[in-house]
Amino acid sequence: MISKSHLKHLVSLKQAKFRKEHEEFIVEGEKMVAELLNSRFRIKGVYGVAEWMQESASKFTNLIVEEISQKDLERISSLKTPNKVLALVEIPTQEEIKSPTKGLHLILDTIQDPGNLGSIIRTADWFGIENIYCSKDTVSLYNPKVIQSTMGSFARVKVHYTELSDLLQQNKALPVYGSLLDGEDIFKKKLDLNAFLIIGNESKGISKEVQTFIDQKVKIPSFAINKSDQAESLNAALATAILCAEFRKQSI
User: Fold this and answer.
1) Is residue 97 situated within a structural domain?
2) pLDDT tens string 135-177
3) CA distance 247 to 252
4) Domain finish residue from 38, 58, 90
5) Sign of torsion, CA 95 235 125 47?
6) For 42-62, what is each residue's pLDDT tens digit?
7) How far apart are alpha carbons 45 and 52 in whole angstroms?
8) For the chain, how many structural domains are there in total?
């Protein structure tokens, strides 16, 4: 069983300041913990209840694997219904950003909702998008709600935090699409499949500074029956999924 001091440390990682200080975060659930084994992330410890220890602990060779009580698991967990196991994982040093030359790349400008970021990462994984570039004020990848919302996709998609204006200034070879309400209908537009696609903040959209780098504005048209009484916009994560689907459709 884990010590009281280590339990206190694991519980503290619910808070951003301690995740940043210790450069560690928590991953919960059997599926996501198992996916870490073949990822770039370093597992520092695995903690499971007795049932999980009997069924699965043997798969985690050469790692610290300790039994934990259900009560202690619930204290560490950020979930309403905690799973059987969680892992302590090291936050890796951000890799140097290499200039993208081909493929579709997502840029997120001040996405604030953890669920949105997690869903966008999962969408990127589904559509084979390897890199996401986030403004420095976008919600942290290591927020527990973000990690959980990715359903394991965080282990496959690289998420970079950077100054977006610098990134775009230094990478002018690729066209830049921006998701804006005054854009062209994306379903009627011929798209360049090697490009940046910018998604803006949930309420304010893409910042004025970042908009200056956009080559082509695109939008998802509304098909509402009553145009005078319709939703103002789509959820950022849902809009990203639709836009990515259209890019991939045109590659077929």
Assistant:
1) no
2) 999 999 999 999 999 999 999 999 999 999 999 999 999 999 9
3) 9
4) 90
5) positive
6) 999 999 999 999 999 999 999
7) 15
8) 2
Task: Please tell me whether residues 215 and 118 are part of one structural domain.
Answer: yes
Q: In this structure, are 200 and 244 located in the same domain?
A: yes
Residues 66-78 pLDDT 10s: 999 999 999 999 9
The CB density around residue 68, as the number of other CB atoms within 10 Å, is: 24
Per DSSP (E only), the strands in the chain are 24-28, 43-48, 65-67, 85-90, 104-108, 131-134, 158-161, 176-185, 195-199, 216-219
Q: Are residues 120 and 221 in the same domain?
A: yes
Domain with residue 111: its CATH number is: 3.40.1280.10
User: Which range marks the domain in which residue 122 is found?
Assistant: 104-249
Q: Which strands form 24-28's sheet, in the order they lie side by side?
A: 24-28, 85-90, 43-48, 65-67
Phi, then psi, of 136 in degrees rounded to 5 = -65, -20
- Domain assignment present for residue 96? The answer is no
Q: How much is the average pLDDT of 5-9?
A: 97
